[in-house]
Amino acid sequence: MYAAMVCAGAAAWLMSGSDDRGRRARLLLAGEVRPVAPQPRLPLRVEELAAFLRRRLGGPAAHAWWCALGGAVLGLLCESWLPLAAGVAAVPLVRRALREREREKAKERRAAAVVELCGAVSGELRAGRQPDRALLSAGGIALRELGDSGAAVLAAARFGGDVPGALREAARSPGAEGLRGVGACWQVAVEGGAGLAAGLDKIADALRAERDQHEELRALLAGPRSTAVVLALLPVFGLLLGTAMGAAPMEVLLHSPPGLACLVVGGLLEWAGIAWVARLVRSAERPVAVGGEERR
């Protein structure tokens, strides 16, 4: 257990790393140049191991390793290896949940960027700019949120490429599906002379309505989510209350066969309840096809 705590501390130190270039940049921006002492280089294998750990433990998903650290501390306090094993087993599950949350946030940012793009380009078109120039001047910031696909759209607009094709390709990113409609309006406007600004306004209005509907649904589901979280934490409050009353529930659960059996059964029931509530929430958020279109 002590070795596990030492390993967790070493991982935290490796994630922090050293930033010599950032220090030099701060010194230059401050107008003061001071010599920076060279840092001692680690052996090659140690540097490779440190880089590997930074890749694996870096990012928002690195917070999942707090489960292992908390399990190690609880195991030391309760003199049992079960909390440490549970904490290590929870690391991949929590990491997957954190990554899913990050993907959902990135999807929402892309959707907001598409709405911003439609409004900004429409305003530039009404001011008299050509479509390519309007996309370059007003849509650059919004398209940067899409990464490489957004850069491809800007390159197509700058050098006379296939802008509708680039928009359809960028629409494959999660959250940027609205660009498919933008590409269709762009192609119709170029080939048939239709008004592009009016089409972009309609797409922006439709995307805003869909976003408002999604936020309303999320607000309606906030109550069941909070209730499920409170019910899931009730056993923890029960253990804390029993410890405060001097009943030593952790010693009974971790050091006696009946307690271990109750712990396993209770853990399985807890997992089943959380999985059931999560499935209900996902089924409520899943779009349903109505008349050939997806509705929520």
Explain this structure:
With 296 residues, this protein is mainly alpha-helical. Helix content is 77%, strand content 2%. The protein contains 13 helices and 2 strands. It has a two-stranded antiparallel sheet. α8 packs antiparallel against α9, α10 packs antiparallel against α11 (196-244) and α12 crosses α13 (257-285). The longest helix has 49 residues, at 196-244. The protein is elongated, with a radius of gyration of 27 Å. The model is unreliable at 13-37 and 288-296 (pLDDT under 50).
Mean pLDDT metric: 75
Radius of gyration: 27 Å
Strand content: under 5%
Instruction: Quote the distance from N terminus to C terminus.
Output: 49 Å
Protein structure class: mainly alpha
> Major sheet: order of its strands?
1-2
Order of helices and strands: HHHHHHHHHHHHHEE
Helix content percent band? over 70%
Number of strands: 2
Largest sheet: 2 strands, antiparallel
Low-confidence stretches: 13-37, 288-296
Enumerate how many helices there are, as a single number.
Answer: 13
Shape annotation: elongated
Main location: membrane
Transmembrane segments: 228-246, 258-278
Subcellular location: Cell membrane
Protein name: Type II secretion system F family protein
Tags for this entry?
mainly alpha; 77% helix
Summarize the structure in short:
With 296 residues, this protein is mainly α. The chain has 13 helices and 2 strands. Residues 121-241 form the Type II secretion system protein GspF domain.
